[in-house]
Amino acid sequence: MKKHEMPPMKKNETPPTGAPMKRPKPKIDFRALGRVLRMLREFYPVLLPVTVACIIFSAATSAIPALFIERVISSIETWIDTGDWASARTEIIPMVLILIGLYVVSIIAITLYNQLMVYMTQGFLHKMRCAMFDRMQNLPIKYFDTNKHGDIMSYYTNDIDTMRELISRSLPTLVQSSVTLLVIFCIMISFSVWMTLVLLVGVTVMLMASGRIGAGSSKYFIRQQRSVAANEAFVQEMMNGQKVVKVFCHEDACRKDFEVLNNNLREDSFRAHAYANILGPIINNIGHVLYALMAMVGGLLLAFEAPNLTITGIGIISISVIVPFLNMTRQFTGSINQVSQQFNTIAMGLAGAKRVFALMDVEPEADEGYVTLVNARRAEDGSIVETEEHTGLWAWKHPHGDGTLTYTPLEGDVRLNGVDFAYEEGKPVLHDVSVYAAPGQKVAFVGATGAGKTTITNLINRFYDIADGKIRYDGININKIKKSDLRRSLGIVLQETNLFSGTVMDNIRYGNLDATDEQCIEAARLAGAHDFISRLPKGYDTELANNGSNLSQGQRQLLAIARAAVADPPVMIMDEATSSIDTRTEAIVQRGMDRLMENRTVFVIAHRLSTVMDSDVIMVLDHGRIIERGTHEALIEAKGTYYQLYTGAFELE
Ligand SMILES: Nc1ncnc2c1ncn2[C@@H]1O[C@H](COP(=O)(O)OP(=O)(O)OP(=O)(O)O)[C@@H](O)[C@H]1O
Ligand SMILES: [Mg+2]
Fold first, then answer.
1. If you measure from the C-alpha of residue 574 to the centroid of ligand 2, how many angstroms do you get, rounded to a whole number?
2. Verdict on whether the full-model pTM lies above 0.85
């Protein structure tokens, strides 16, 4: 058996376990950080500054007790020296009260900013998801042709989650720790320059160690994120393809493929966390060493302070300075530890943000169309007049350069003139295709697989734009028509049937959200779907799930036809719409469609020639060219390709 094939995996850069690792570089994306901050400021112009102010206040309050402790200790020292409790008391009690007051306010500030952060984070993510979804709705079909759907899924789950951590936890901690560090540093300098200098040397060593480790782990955290996305994409693909996997007995091969992805994930996660987990204890322990070092330095300075050992320039130091200084040393190293712990979350959050921004920055489907579809009625003189109410008569509203407006009734006259097209540059799919379909006509396309039949319909509804030639709709170049209005005027039954979660009725109503239940049932009758729906246990209220997996393929097609029919469109495109339907039911659908599409245009694509025999004109496509056109009888008479297809001679050859 051929080895199980899977889409080429993105090369994972993780070196195999045990391989020497290069010195990794930190992966903080400052551009993405700037954009996240700008967006936060834009979304919450008042709440954000309030939150930052609360964070700064609480950070500052957590740092200043040192000042008070110094004053309290020196007051106690004076009291012990002089025995004057009364004056010591007047100094100590107000300070203690102020300290308590500050802490109470600080608790309020902490509670407030935590609540605000939760509110802003969830609001921010909500807005991001909305923006992503909005953009996704406006992306050209090409984007979905060329990007893995599992990857797109992971933007909404994995990447958004990393952003949640970034905004709710890491950024506030970063601000808080930075402020604490700054305030403590200033107090330290004012207490003792020498001790501060010694501490700075120690901290530099600490930073160098944490920098090495932190930079390494952030890289693996980002890889871990990519691996999670690859795992998700694979699982999604496997779920969609479960039946094919089983049919070809590929369970084992799939398991192996999954194992590769899963191993990558384990390895990336292992490396990421192995680094991250040692970072904290290392910094902590260096902090302990620094604490002891500072105690020694303080003791030495105190000794030099003795009258007979005074060294000029060292400055005054006393026990009232050393005690708070040691406390601050702990706080200082603790804050550095906290900052370093955020490094990975920040790197990951920004990598997630970058991917989300990349989706949001994809160029949306361009639409320069200015001709719109409006409700219309005929005035007494026979001219077309725009109207608010739904009249059943539609018109193209065409503004001209000279300021005038013309209204053209929507009839469904579609003409392709010398159309060339290529999905990818240099690989033309259609060559010089010309098709004329007048209202009321039924135009059929037949031809071998890959001949370009579906492509023609993709061009009429402007999923893709043509390279050369013209497509006119009721005499208007379709490039001038607003895309949504153009598509609204076309009823399309796509080659692959897609149904959505919801009831059968919901799925039919998808074609026209204003349709009443009666209209939906009428459309189902026209489409020949009513019979089978009535036999379903809950009829029109039957819930569909997983693309209608509880229906047969033909039933799904009938629903898709009903969905297009309820829109009551002037032009209908049916791409292999009845390919899975038995010939007897097809004849019923055909009659229904004929009734619906009287005086309207229908494009039919079918391999089964009995489906297209009664068409007004049949186009035979071959490698993107129309090689024959005419009625069934004329084409049979001509004894060309169509004749060969019809008589089976083609296959026999
Ligand atoms: N999204 C795409 N990107 C690139 N090439 C494409 C794409 N879709 C189709 N093609 C190519 O364009 C050609 C015409 O495809 P098309 O889907 O129009 O064939 P078709 O006549 O509808 O075939 P079938 O009868 O199998 O439905 C094929 O060679 C196909 O490989
Ligand atoms: Mg096709």
1. 10
2. no
